[in-house]
Amino acid sequence: MNLKSSKPILALSAAAALIFSACGNQQNSEETEEVKIEETTQSKFLSEPLISHIYTADPSAHVFNGKIYIYPSHDVESVVEEDDSGAHFNMRDYHVFSMETIDSEPKDHGLALDVDDVPWAKRQMWAPDAAEKDGKFYLYFPAKDHDDIFRLGVAVSDKPEGPFEAQPEPMKGSFSIDPAVFQDGNEYYIYWGGIWGGQLQKWRTGEYLSTGDSPYDDEPADDEPAISPMIAKLSNDMLEFGEAPKEIKILDKDGSPILAGDHERRFFEAAWVHKYNDKYYFSYSTGDTHNIAYAIGDSPYGPFTYQGVILKPVQGWTNHHSIVEVDEKWYIFYHDTELSGETHLRNLKMTEMTHNADGTIEMIEPILK
Ligand code: FUB
User: Fold this and answer.
1) What residue's CA is closest to ligand 1, atom 9?
2) CATH-assigned architecture of domain 14-368
3) Cα torsion at 62, 98, 112, 131 (round to 10°)?
4) Domain extents in the chain
5) What pTM did the predictor assign?
6) What is the tens place of the pLDDT at every residue in 181-238?
7) Where is the signal peptide, in residue numbers (predicted)?
8) What is the separation of C-alpha 214 from the centre of its chain, rounded to a whole number of angstroms?
């Protein structure tokens, strides 16, 4: 996650771009101004906010015990100044939500885990995910440790909604952000990583590179392969990596790696995996180009071949999603900033997602023009 952009924060949505250009064109004729204002008011979002009593983002949705459970980030106003590493995304706890059916209102189950109850964590409780095994529920989450290095933690509960009890230490050998757990039969795989503010680029050598404070240090050159998201099978007790982490390759259709300079297609953050017709779909945010893109492979480890975009940019800088099957239909959960207009105060949304007959996914425009 990051804010490296000279663009105004909201300039990525059609609605916000129109508002911005309307505000920035005061010398223009009255006629031009009127047209722009009219266009702005005609813009509509594809979906309504799902939750409005608190700010929520980065939704990981699952079906557990016949209900839909959502594990989001809990966005809050922050006294921490905005910076390029996303320090103002200064979340400190998690709430879990459940829905009886895909049309019902999400129920807030209250505080599920607070940073003060995680001995190793200092701040920035970012995008979490959850998994169920043998009647126990595991919450996976990133947070900065006391050295300001992102690590991944696990917390355990007997109930999908928590409250969760955190392990005293982060997962051994863990780093970066955005854990996502995918169950394939009896095996569980954890995917993770996020560049820039998510620090993945600082682990290129296997050690933390503290060459500078800038989140843009340590990136490969534009013509080198992009930084890879990570995968590891989970241990039987679900609390640690069960094998040495491996890099995931995202390839072009000609088999060559997607390059670091290819910001339209390279992995940035928000990994998610779902399985459809025996193929593995790896989806992710492209960060500064704001798409949710996807790639398809024959194994949970990849390699994955880039296919295209599932979800076009939402209002707000970040784009982060999950994909879940409910009653034989597929849904994408995501967020935008419709309620606040502030990039760090997001609200959840959801819409149906369609796999085409050839296995590709129909692209979704979250802002109606
Ligand atoms: O919510 C904080 C960060 O913003 C997440 O970890 C990223 O994926 C981005 O959505």
Assistant:
1) 1
2) 5 Propeller (2.115)
3) -20
4) 14-368
5) 0.89
6) 999 999 999 999 999 999 999 998 888 987 666 777 788 999 999 999 999 999 999 9
7) 1-22
8) 22
